[in-house]
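Design a sequence for this backbone.
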């Protein structure tokens, strides 16, 4: 008796290959839905274990470090792709995705437990510098999620030779550029919120 039936993972990978845009859209909607649920206060703080205050206070600084690391890994990943070193590109972009996941987990955890942090600087700086930087950072982060998920879905469901026949390169360039700007603006927001004021 032959056991050549595809595994559930192989079946899902085949489905995701045929429906990359839909799968990426669904995964993006779930991820963004979770983010909006936390930001909107739908997730109660009581569902999470509470870390010590020192850990909660360290999260913004840790996230700034994670953001700087992601800027480096995205830049190196883009350079590797330009040099046609696709294995190195893959490693750096997976590292960038992991860093983004760590950033988001820490940010959402702290936000659920403590809420937002008020800006302590002058109103004019808040209105004309801090809030515009924060708004663009948030907007780019939201836009990046479906773009990044889509290029990751394409890469995860195809061998390298087939990837060149997809939108991976075109969409990936846009995603990487927006991702870099979003992380850089996030660091600027951190500097204004926690170091300058």
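Sequence:
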């Amino acid at each position: 008796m032959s056991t050549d039936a595809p595994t559930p993972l192989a079946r899902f990978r085949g489905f995701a290959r045929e429906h990359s845009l839909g799968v990426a859209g669904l995964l993006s909607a779930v991820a963004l839905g979770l983010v909006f649920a936390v930001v909107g206060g739908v997730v109660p703080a009581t569902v999470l274990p509470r870390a010590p205050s020192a850990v909660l206070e360290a999260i913004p600084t840790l996230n700034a470090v994670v953001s700087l690391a992601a800027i480096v890994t995205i830049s190196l990943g883009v350079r590797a792709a330009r040099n046609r070193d696709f294995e190195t590109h893959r490693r750096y972009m997976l590292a960038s995705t992991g860093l983004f996941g760590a950033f988001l987990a820490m940010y959402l955890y702290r936000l659920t437990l403590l809420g937002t942090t008020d800006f302590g600087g002058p109103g004019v700086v808040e209105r004309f510098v801090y809030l515009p930087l924060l708004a663009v950072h948030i907007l780019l982060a939201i836009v990046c999620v479906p773009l990044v998920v889509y290029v990751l879905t394409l890469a995860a469901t195809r061998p390298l030779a087939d990837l060149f026949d997809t939108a991976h390169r075109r969409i990936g360039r846009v995603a990487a550029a927006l991702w870099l700007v979003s992380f850089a603006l996030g660091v600027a927001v951190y500097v204004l919120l926690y170091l300058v004021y």
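The mean pLDDT is 94.
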